[in-house]
Amino acid sequence: MKKLFLACAMTAVLTGCGSSGDTTATSATPAVTTASVSGYVADGYLRNAEIFLDKNGNFQWDEGEPKTTSGPGGYYALTGFDPALMQYPVVARAIPGTTIDEDNLNQPIANGYLLCAPAGSTGFVSPISTLVQEKMAANPGMTLVDATAQVRTELGLPERLNIMADYVAGSRPGQVDQATYQTLHTMAQQMVGLMASQSSQVMNGAGVDVVRYRAMVNGMNANLAGISQNATTNAGMQSTFMTTMRNNMQNYLVSQTTTATNAVVPYSRWSY
Fold this sequence. Notes:
By secondary structure, the chain is an alpha+beta fold. The protein has eight helices and twelve strands. The chain has helices at 127-138, 144-154, 167-170, 178-197, 199-202, 210-221, 224-232, 240-255, and strands at 9-15, 32-41, 46-47, 50-53, 67-69, 75-81, 90-94, 100-101, 113-117, 124-125, 203-204, 207-208. Strands 1, 2, 6 and 10 form a four-stranded mixed β-sheet that branches. Strands 5-4-7-9 form a four-stranded antiparallel β-sheet. A hairpin with a 2-residue loop joins strand 11 and strand 12. Helix 1 crosses helix 2, helix 1 (127-138) crosses helix 6 (210-221) and helix 4 packs across helix 7 (224-232). The radius of gyration is 20 Å and the shape is globular.
């Protein structure tokens, strides 16, 4: 069983060697330092998602950015890269027709979407970590601790709950806070439903409209209380709240003429 509280699996690996039998400092080959990061990606666990470190904040893979593909159970591992890249967030791209959400193993996802997680908390990449990452992006100077606490409070979850943990594993029978993690999983599923509904506005082949993507996530961040209530009451994706949220979000995104920049849309633009 996967551990509930997943640490951000980041390690620095030192490798190097000298000439055979030669122990002098002058002939030794300098050690080479590399880094690695690993974890899991989920709405439900996502197989065959593209995972990479996003150096330039454009939410798409570029040459020179470490990249891999998630496997069964949503596991991913990025290895052998420059430790300087550890400062960048992880992005997970769910690809239509390719990525499989293990909540539904029968078929690949139909609409693409992006998830991300802030540097320092990449052990479990999910819609929840995405909210935290984009809350930090929209509020320069906000710490990871503060952003996590704010999202947890706005979702109405208990202070003891680690919202960056693996809620899939946490919702299994016998786990501490099983019911609460199941509710968090439901919230995440509904957030992915919202993101997937806006795929045509945000995703463009291998490209991403950064302004629209951030507007979409910030729209969810501005409405966490409603998202929480919708999930806890089992209202579903066709509820009045979700239908209104989806329609308002789509209308706003359609109205935007944007380019791929790092602009962040203020939360005040999303008062429903």
